[in-house]
Design goal:
It is a single chain. The chain is 32% helix and 9% strand. The protein has six helices and four strands; from the N terminus they run E-H-E-H-H-H-E-H-E-H. The two termini are 13 Å apart.
C-alpha cells in the first residue's frame, strides 16, 4: 500500500467538459456572465464537483481566467492551476511519436505520484497507455463528450473510481455525494496499476 494520504486529484478542462460545444440549453449563471460562451456553463455542475472526494485542479488553457470567470459561476472557490511549460524538442518529438496529448506529460509531473482523474474531451488511449507506464499511482483518464459536457454518467464513473481509489489509500470510507448523484454502476472504470 502506498504512503499517500492526500486525496486524489481531479484535473479539469474547461472547454468541452464544462463548456460543451453542442447546441445544448443555455443556463442562467449564478453571477453576471461577461461572455455569452459562459452561458453554456451548467451551475449545477459546481456543487457536484465540489462534493467529489478529491482535490479539484484546473487543467485548462484558461489558466487564471478559470478562477476569475468560470469558478464563481459554478459556485467553486479558486482552485490550483496547472501552468503549461514549453516542452523540449525531444519531449515534443516523443509526444508526437506516441500520439500524446500536449497536457499528458505535465499532468503526470504535476500529480507527483498522487492518484488522479483527468476529465478532458481530447484524451485518447495513447495518453492512457503512457500514463500507466509513467505514473506510479492509479489514474483515470476519462474522456468527456465535448458535445454535451460533464453528464450524470461521467459523475458516476468518476465518483466510483475516486471512492475505490481513495479507499485504497487509507482514506475515510465515507464521502460526500452531491444530491441527485446517480448510483448506477459505472460501465467502465479504467484503473491503471502502479509500476
Amino acid at each position: 500500500m502506498s504512503g499517500h494520504r492526500e486525496r486524489p486529484l481531479l484535473f479539469l478542462d474547461v472547454d468541452g467538459p464544462l463548456l460543451p460545444f453542442g447546441a445544448g440549453p443555455q443556463h442562467e449563471p449564478s453571477g453576471a456572465a461577461t461572455d455569452t460562451a459562459l452561458m453554456r456553463l451548467d451551475p449545477r455542475v459546481g456543487p457536484r464537483l465540489a462534493a467529489l472526494p478529491c482535490e479539484l485542479v484546473w487543467a485548462t488553457t484558461w489558466e487564471g481566467a478559470a478562477n476569475t470567470d468560470v469558478a464563481p459561476l459554478l459556485g467553486l472557490p479558486p482552485l490550483p492551476i496547472v501552468h503549461w511549460p514549453e516542452p523540449s524538442d525531444a519531449q515534443e518529438h516523443e509526444d508526437q511519436w506516441f500520439g500524446l496529448h500536449w497536457k499528458t506529460r505535465t499532468l503526470v509531473t504535476w500529480a507527483d505520484g498522487r492518484p488522479f482523474v483527468w476529465a478532458d474531451d481530447e484524451i485518447t488511449d495513447a495518453d492512457r497507455d503512457w500514463v500507466s507506464s509513467h505514473h506510479s499511482a492509479p489514474a483515470l483518464l476519462h474522456h468527456i463528450a465535448s458535445s454535451r459536457g460533464l453528464a450524470d454518467e461521467d459523475f458516476t464513473i468518476i465518483h466510483q473510481w475516486l471512492r475505490a481509489t481513495w479507499g485504497t489509500f487509507d482514506a475515510p470510507e465515507e464521502s460526500t455525494v452531491a444530491r441527485g448523484m446517480p448510483t448506477a454502476p459505472a460501465r467502465s472504470i479504467r484503473k491503471h496499476p502502479g509500476r
